[in-house]
Amino acid sequence: MTASQLVLAASLLATAAAPSENAAGDRTKAHPMPMPTAPAHTEGQLPSLGGATAWLNSPPLTPAALRGKVVLVEIWTYTCINWLRTMPFIRAWADRYQDQGLVVIGVHSPEFPFEHDLDNVRRAAKALRVNYPIAVDSDFAVWRALGNQYWPAIYLVDAKGSIRHHQFGEGGYEETERVLQQLLEEAGHPPAGRELVKVTGTGIEAAADWDSLESPESYLGAARAESFSSPGGAKPGRAHEYAAPPGLKRNQWALSGTWTIKQGSALSNAAGGRIVYRFHARDVNLVMGPAKAGGSLRFRVLIDGRPPGSAHGVDVDEQGNGTLAEPRTYQLIRQGAPIVDRQLEVEFLDPGAEAFAFTFG
């Protein structure tokens, strides 16, 4: 797959005030794309940022006030695994080039309903060390003004306010930084050297193992669910007792226990509800959280029927135990070689867990 598979359905963007929680395309396998090494043309002007519903880490910024600065605008939403894996580079560029006139602006355009909550965005920004200005774009006004269709997306703007370069999806880091350096030089603030930042992501921000990644992003809500394999199929909109089949093929998944499959998520109604997924990837992540704010719910992860041990992700221990405290992306598995088909089970020991989408790396 390529980053073109990140694209939102054009018809949805043309008719809707904002993309729905299920409008995003497959963001999981956005391979790096070759990009120009220098800005060859202008892609229009930086539009107004006035549609932002709030600003964090900064008073409101305007294109006029940013003239004379080189601006990096990134479109993000805090659960997006592809955005999380770009963050080490964004942070490094913000730190290295701020004294040469670079301004980084994060435009937070939410995918899931809980990402519209300003307190959730504020908490995620702090936890993820997003220290530069954030335009909270909950109404998608800035998204539409840019004509954007991607999570994540980067736009580089020169000192005259012209968009000179873009990068959609993960990758293109060297090319983007070279363009950034050239724009700073054009603005009269050449970097001290031409070397590029050296970045190694850790934890959930580590680059994907693309060579072994054979599982796509998988949504659990009725609107976008694929390969759901519980006998009898989904019964959306009402509580139903589901069972897992005796065997799953790669990238099939099932529910066990009492669940309500909603349009955008699956809600566990009773203790002991399980999600089973047969995957092929180094990493397994799950966007999930307590359905009611302020709750704290226990969950347990098994891989091939056993605790994950050293294959546990950052959000579970070696025995597979974890806690849902807020809605976000939880890393459940990071395993070593060899990468083969494995079966994941996520059991919720308390009722009220809501799961939205699996991502892999």
Can you characterise this structure?
With 361 residues, this protein is of the alpha+beta class. The chain has two domains: 3-205, 3-Layer(aba) Sandwich (Glutaredoxin); 214-360, Jelly Rolls (Sandwich), CATH 2.60.120.260. 15% of the residues lie in helices and 27% in strands. It contains five helices and 17 strands. Strands 7, 8, 9, 10, 11, 12, 13, 14, 15, 16 and 17 form an eleven-stranded antiparallel beta sheet that branches. A six-stranded mixed beta sheet has the order 1-4-3-2-5-6, covered by helices on one side. A hairpin with a 4-residue loop joins β9 (253-261) and β10. The protein is elongated. The chain starts with 9 loop residues before the first helix and ends with a strand.
Quick summary:
This protein is an alpha+beta fold and 361 residues long.
Q: What is the radius of gyration?
A: 21 Å
CATH top level of the largest domain? Alpha Beta
Number of domains: 2
Q: Structural class, please?
A: alpha+beta
The share of residues in helices is 10-25%
Which residues form runs of ≥5 with pLDDT under 50? 1-41
Task: Characterize the quaternary organization of these chains.
Answer: single chain
Our count of helices gives: 5
List keywords for this structure.
361 residues; alpha+beta; Jelly Rolls; six-stranded mixed sheet; 5 helices; 27% strand
Helices and strands in order, then pairings?
Blueprint: H1 10-15, E1 54-56, E2 70-76, H2 81-97, E3 102-108, H3 118-127, E4 134-136, H4 141-146, E5 153-157, E6 163-168, H5 173-186, E7 218-219, E8 239-242, E9 253-261, E10 266-268, E11 273-279, E12 283-290, E13 297-303, E14 321-324, E15 328-334, E16 342-348, E17 353-360
Parallel strand pairs: 2-3, 3-4
Antiparallel strand pairs: 1-4, 2-5, 5-6, 7-17, 8-9, 9-10, 9-11, 10-17, 11-16, 12-15, 12-17, 13-14, 13-16
